[in-house]
Structures are given as structure tokens and as C-alpha cells.
Amino acid sequence: MNRFFLLLCLLFPLPHHAQAHVIDKSLFDGYDAAFVLLDRSSGEVISLDTARAAKRLPPCSTFKIYNTLTGLELGLVEGPDERWYTWDGIRRDYEAWNRDLTLREAFRVSAVPAFQRLARRIGSGRMKKYIDRIGYGSRDMSSGVDAFWLPREGRTSITISADEQVELLRRLLDGKLPFSEKSVSILRDVMKVEETSKGTLYGKTGSGMDSEGRWNLGWFVGFVESGGKVYVYACNIAGGDNPSGVVAREIVERVLRANDLL
Q: What is the 3-state secondary structure (H, E, C) of the chain?
């Protein structure tokens, strides 16, 4: 070993927790993917594909993060475990939606009817106010208050990029968005999806379908607490074999584990 380099290491040792985070493209299984990871303390950002990370796409069910926060701020949602959604009796393809649900349950199973009802209760005017105040993507609500985040053929959706998803979550955790500490605390509670000896993962999936009912877009966005630090991430995938939010989550977890964050 070079004696000068050894001397530098002895005089200025690297912190025990220091590590370089990298993105192994093989972890993405050949999907067209954007992945952005922000170290909240240092501001360092790594990105798999900067062009795709800047591309706006329908948020799908990741918008439930801000639908939930708005409902909490307006007092339309009280807490994570009170009965919140009363099933309307209409049977839908996802059996987990066909019953009464708490906020925690509805968030976990991504119950579209529950959050559509919440959006209608919020109303177009109040929803638009919050969309504008936080600067959510394209801000396009033209397809209706209970549908603007859901991509459908022949209908315009609000759109947002992976970069913008990360920036919004950073501002949320920094207390820079118009939501109270109580609302953010409840959101964090329902967003918690996994805890290991190395870190705690918070996130929300989102999935889009084509006109034939096949998955064609998957999202997973959120943050991970690891080693005393917080990292904010966003991932979207397309192409490949049936891309969905579930697959996007699996990919994110692989990337975080590969970087010793989870």
C-alpha cells in the first residue's frame, strides 16, 4: 500500500458509517426504470436514469399520500385505526376492498373506492388549493376530483416525475409543506411497510393498467431510515413483464438491501 495513502488514512480515518451508494442496473430486471435516492442530511442524490427520472407520469395510487394528508388536515380522517371507510356493498375484483376499512387497512390494500370517496368529500376546490400549494406535478385535475390521479385511456391524468416525488417527500419531512406534525405523524404510521435490523422502510405503491387490463406502470415512493439517516426515494418502471407497484417495491427493496440500508 502506498505509504502516503496509509498515513492519510491514519490521520483522517473514514467514519465507520461512511459508504458509497451505487445503483446496480441488474437489480431492475430489464424494466425501463427511473430510480432516485436522496440522502436527506447531505443532499446527495443518485439517479439510475436522469432523463426518465425527470419524465412526468401518472402517479397512480402514490397520490394517496397527499389525498390522506389533505383529509387529515380537514378533519375528514381522524386516525389510523378507527373505522373510516364503510363498504358500499358493490363487489369489486379486489376482495380486500369489499369490506369496511380503517385508514391503515385502506392504505395498505390501496383501496381505490375508499380514497375516491375521500377525494369527493374534500371537494374540487379544496383539493385544487392543496395541489397548488404543494406544487404537485402538472396540477391537472381536469378529469375530476375522484379520478385525476388514475390513468385511463382517453382521459387526462395529473402527472409527476420521480424527481418531483422525491422533492415533495423531502419537503414534507422537512416540515415545508402545509400539513401539521400530527397529520405527518399519522401518515408515517400508515406508510410503514417493513422494519429490519438495518433500517425501517416507509412507502406507497402505485400501478397503472392499459386498456386490456394489463399492468403497464409501477411506482414505489417513500423513505427509509437507516444508520441514523433518512433517505428519500422514488422508483417507476414500465416495459418488461407486467410492471406494477408490487414489482417496483420488490426492486426498491433489492436496491436498498444491496446498499446495506435495509
A: CCHHHHHHHHHCCCCCCCCCCCCCHHHHCCCEEEEEEEECCCCCEEECCHHHHCCCECCHHHHHHHHHHHHHHCCCCCCCCCEEECCCCCCCCCHHHCCCEEHHHHHHCCCHHHHHHHHHHHCHHHHHHHHHHHCCCCCCCCCCCCCCCCCECCECCCCECHHHHHHHHHHHHCCCCCCCHHHHHHHHHHHEEEECCCEEEEEEEEEEECCCCCEEEEEEEEEEEECCEEEEEEEEEECCCCCCHHHHHHHHHHHHHHCCCC
